[in-house]
Amino acid sequence: MSQGMATSGKTRLLIVDDSMFMRMAISAMCELRDDIEVVGEAENGDEGVAMAGELAPDVITMDLDMPKMDGITATKLITEQRRVPIIILSSLSERGSELTFRALNAGASDFVCKSASALDVDLSTIAETLVEKIQHWGKQSRLQAEPAGAGVAALGQQHHDLAFAMAGEGGPQALSTLLQGIQRLRMPMLVAPDLPPPMFGPFLRFLETRIALPIFAAEDGTALGHDRVAVLPPGQLARLDFGAGAPVLQVSAQPSLSVTPLASLLASPGLGERKLLVLALSALHADTTAAGKLRSLGHTLVAQDPEHCIARGASDALLQTGLVSAGMGLADIKQLVMEGQADG
């Protein structure tokens, strides 16, 4: 916790952006909040590195394309000196997405996507999300470590045929943290990320740099063996064909937003004879109706601790409906994923 946070009770924010309009706009939106204080504004990465050292902010917002020093280099230098949450502001384009995930690898904590066009920045579309993320990361320094789940040992002894992870806003970071360091996954994993299409390819490449497990885009007819992580492309849903061997993916286009990944999974033939480990990782929404049906069939539901989620909507919904009894930290969820299936 920084000294400024301790004395003022506010999240102390440093804004790093070469656009005067963006600096003024972010500062103005934060002035409307009682719990955020803008302590500095830098117009390039070089200034941002210097001000981060002088001001010791609690959170930094960082543009990527800047003169003198870009945001990725600045992020790396700042986080090498002091661990501070950095939120990347990037364009929603293929290039912007690539740079965003490079920044995450350099030490950034989170990102917010703005318009792909520099001439078409509508800050109102990202203002609420940006403020929520500033508040979230400011709060993390005041939180204790993620809770240890009392039921981890019991759940880890259960047999699971597959892990299904819903990964929403904040899902890329949660998923990479969850899988990082695992050399062997004892069950296949299917991931349903909530990402815009331009970010999907960069997201896969980001995970490939962070985890040792084989990871690939889910395709129709692909068999999911142990140690493999399949990721559903945006706008795609999956069913699982549980035959005699490994489960086989049945991938199809999402007919409408009302058909959720969990609802699609429920239509998998032979699902009642199998056992899934369903994970809500920093997701905004949860289909509690489908989740309730999965639980009634004997499948295991796990929600990441909402206090440590960038997007907590799914975890809150599962907790409030009683479908899970308590949120779990990523370290405990990692134990479940590694120990979720017996040897052999």
Structural account:
Helices cover 37% and strands 20% of the residues. The strands form three sheets. Strands 8-9-7-6-12-13 form a six-stranded parallel beta sheet, sandwiched between helices. The chain is built from 13 helices and 13 strands. Mean pLDDT is 86; it is low at 1-7 and 340-344. The radius of gyration is 21 Å and the shape is elongated. Helix 5 (94-106) packs parallel to helix 9 and helix 8 crosses helix 13.
Topology:
Elements: H1 3-8, E1 11-16, H2 20-31, E2 36-42, H3 45-55, E3 59-63, H4 71-81, E4 86-91, H5 94-106, E5 110-114, H6 124-140, H7 152-156, E6 162-167, H8 171-179, E7 189-193, H9 200-210, E8 215-217, E9 229-231, E10 236-241, E11 248-253, H10 261-266, E12 276-281, H11 288-296, E13 300-303, H12 313-320, H13 330-339
Parallel strand pairs: 1-2, 1-3, 3-4, 4-5, 6-7, 6-12, 7-9, 8-9, 12-13
Antiparallel strand pairs: 10-11
Helix pairs in contact: 3-4, 4-5, 5-9, 8-13
